[in-house]
Batch of 2 targets.
Target 1
Amino acid sequence: MPGEDTIAAISTPAGEGGIGIVRVSGDKAFSLVDQIFIPHRGKKKGYPLSHHLYHGHIINEQGEIIDEVLVSFMRSPHTYTCEDTVEVNCHSGIFTLRLILSLILKKGARLAEPGEFTRRAFLNGRIDLSQAENVLRIIQARSEEGVKLAALNVTGYLSEEIASLRNSIMDNLAQIEAVLDFPEDLECDSTETQLKPNLEIMINQVKDLLEGAERGRAYQEGIKTAIIGKPNVGKSSLLNALLKQQRAIVHEVPGTTRDLLEGYLNLGGYPIQIIDTAGIRQTVDPVEQEGISRSKNAAEKAQLLLIVLDGSTPWEAEDEAITRLIREGQAVIMVLNKSDLPLRTTVKEVEERFPGIPVVSTAIVKNEGIRQLEEEMIKLLDRKLGHGGENAALLSLRQEEAIKGALRHLEKAADQIDTQPLELVSLELHGAWQKLGEITGDTVSDELLDRIFSQFCLGK
Ligand SMILES: Nc1nc2c(ncn2[C@@H]2O[C@H](COP(=O)(O)OP(=O)(O)OP(=O)(O)O)[C@@H](O)[C@H]2O)c(=O)[nH]1
Ligand SMILES: [Mg+2]
């Protein structure tokens, strides 16, 4: 069981590196490492001092030197896990690391489960669940902005927001309970009139959180951008031009791209995950059909759609069908390509068909129009995501689901307030309070904890 025994694990990535760390946490951490570590300057009075770095050697059971190391002994509670913790900084090389770990295990430590150090930090009350999950996000984050956001969450930004929301819910619940318990002393109607604006404020706060989550996700995973269009319009050429490398196969035969192909780029500070797709058309070829269904799927999931059109051909039913894939709220840019050839479809024509959607004319073979397209993309993202990720929050899917659940309860409460008895409204408020508690781990089951912490890598 977590928290009862002393655990150990290699905390740095496997492979060759300058240094590697073996981490040990628990009551016996000091005494276990003490048996295999010989400090260079001997064990003076007071040894080991907490939060000091000791230079020395790790020795095996035969007393042979295994490695020259730096060891830090850190006394509870001022450690990552809140338990006594020792970190052995050794020469990284998977063999050395494993050898040191196995010595520590032989002395009586147990190999840590994935995420167990962080789990202990949570169980010992040093961080709440949302902060624990954000440790995971930091490990996984893609862009620098994503790392910053995750770090912000670890320091408790999300927890504060949730706590303040739960407090407001509690206040309102208390108000309702008071009216229900002492109906003769308090006015039911006035409580309802107070509740209404309060509910509206809380609903807006929750919606803000969800909006922030979308921004956060964009920063962390990259803004999903799909390039879609008919076969042969120049989609793969566009992917290559944006990535500035010959990533995808470009060929005059329509139907060249069969599967999704993705790359990452940084555009004006926005991390972008760009996806080239198979050209969409009617076909009987089963492989191509599968590719096309993936294209449609990618289009649906994308936050930004680049629809590529071939300006050298007239507007066709196939183009029309592709534009019907645009989802509400999706950012879209029309890329009218092959402007080096005689034009059969013009920018004006496309603009008239799709008022409000920007159209950029390109000749990708000549690298013309790419800069304008990039600027247009940045402009759209600025509008959609705001500069510098204001209000962005990094939420896990689980956290987002919990917030959505809370929103549903609050909206239902708002719906019921005029027509239903206060008991029902109170029930919904309770539901919202409960859901929000799942985020910070105040109301959470063991099973859920297992699921969350199992996503961590070993040693974290
Ligand atoms: N003239 C001209 N040809 C282009 C331009 N952009 C791409 N092409 C050519 O159009 C053909 C198709 O290009 P791709 O990038 O493979 O097109 P695609 O949309 O990925 O095609 P599929 O993968 O088959 O759906 C190639 O022969 C390209 O060289 C352009 O701006 N002008
Ligand atoms: Mg292609």
Target 2
Amino acid sequence: MVKYDAPHHKPNGSNSDIKIANIAIVGGTHGNEYTGIYLLKIFKERQTFSSFKSFQTTLLLSNPKAFENQSRFIDFDLNRSFLNKDLKDITLSAYEQSRSKAINNLLGPKGNAKTDLIIDLHTTTANMGVTIILVDNNDFNLKMVAHVQSQLKDISIFYISPDDSDNPYLNSIAKYGFSLEVGPISNGIVRHDILIKTYQTVIYCLEFIEAFNQGFQSDEQTVDVFEYVKQVDFPLDNNNQIAAMLHSDLQDKDFIALQKGTKIFEMFNGDTVLYEDDESLYPVFINEAAYYYKKTAFTLARKKRLTLLPRNH
Ligand SMILES: [Zn+2]
């Protein structure tokens, strides 16, 4: 049997008030992203978490009906269904709107959750490698992801600051955690290499948490994040239909700074569209299959260096 080893860290340093006692690992929030769904089976069958003593782990297939249907969702995107106002609104009763309430009962309630930390497993068709998506940049989250980044090469951290201090993502039920995007991979398949990267990232996090619960303080002082700026839609024709394809100069160039004058689209009529901003932003989710329905071609982010609180703070 293959075992996907990750090196173990030695706890040292001082204690902290934060204790992570209950963790949920969630897969299949989008029913056609199979990596997380099958990873849950692997975790269960191999009893991967039995060696961790300082926390309990819940495994959750979050959107079973969409998985059965081999689709991203049935009625709504489940990973946009966790705003506080929507969770409280009993008139919202389509499949994912009911499912989000059931998950909130199981893991939450949001704001006072029995689950301390959630890792929500996703995949992307974009060439993003391993990307941690944070919606809360609290110091614990930053330290955890900075530490994982120091252990595992080629991990990027994408940060979405919430509107009105609320956000609609599943992992926002808990105070700590993130969603994980690993790609590139088609929807509806499993790839061994992508699955192993996802597995390793989860294990590094859990090893960090186990050590943290025992008083470990990491050494990292800064962490680089890519902060969400805006989405860029495909050019549209007069009928509101997509009128261009992503240019090959941009395809697969996720997390590589865009320079003014870079070709970003080739119109179906033969014209070329250039990147015209003076600021050099970073494209991510380039050609993400799940965003064609809303005609989004890629997302732009700004690179930022964040300072972590010193040890013993
Ligand atoms: Zn997803």
